[in-house]
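User: I'll paste a sequence; please echo it back and then give the predicted structure.

Assistant: Echoing your sequence first, then the prediction.
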Amino acid sequence: MLEQITNTAKTYTMRGKPASYIPVLALQSVDQFAACIIDQSGNCFEAGNIEAQFTLQSISKVINFIVACEYHGLQFVLDKVDVEPTGDAFNSIIRLESTAPGKPFNPMINAGAITVASMLPGETVKDRIAYVADFLYRITGHLHQVNEEVYRSEIETTHRNRAIAHYLKANDYLLCDVEESVETYIRLCSLEVSAKDLAKIGLMLAGNGVHPSTNEKFITPKTAKVTKALMTTCGLYNASGKYAASIGIPMKSGVSGGVLCTVADGKVEYLKGKLGIGVFSPGIDDIGNSVAGMKFIEKLSQTYDLSIF
């Protein structure tokens, strides 16, 4: 059945288009597809090139939120960023202007993510990137580099993010200056990972911050639970409600075509218990979610009854 689900999902790769607003990502070949599922015993399902590298993009928002919460404490972060869904596009500025006192609605939209980026540990942009990359290294077991070509492509066209950051700075939400906040955010969006890396992160979240196999504690259960709640309600841009209803598991997507998923308890053929799922296919829809990736996860959830609802 897993093979059938994979083959069905692959037929959707050409139905999406790579992210055109980031020039380098626009050059990605849309026929790529990779999926990885890891269970609490280390059993692994692999489809496609699960080691193929792509940039985190908005999936970095999950990592950054976790790191900021673990460093400052959850309440400190929530004083600057709320946890409410918006139903708006990820780069929308309208809520900042129309809702007093201009507090970002959640860390999964750009306004919240830029605010969180300004909170990350370190005196410089370089320090902050190194801190987050080291956190990822602890989970995945290998180094993660910024794709400089993607970074340059994004930073040169990130005028809207700068506008958002200036508004946030004017309302005293940023902990560092505008350019440092934006550069930190964009560089972390440009960190490279694989589908297997995403599955490992998902497995850690499934264990509420504790790796199910090694019992190594990465984050507190409180941070893990709030993170998963945000992924469920806000993780798929303004299609989050739709996918909460049809799939019903915590997920976070990125416009490079990656999707991070976590399942607290499930059974998918020979895989059982806590599950981490990572998918990559660069053809995205108009909202920003991988078309083939979401089809794979949808079929997986419906076939094996993985929904938390």
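The first helix runs from residue 2 to 10. The CA atoms of residues 84 and 105 lie 5 Å apart.
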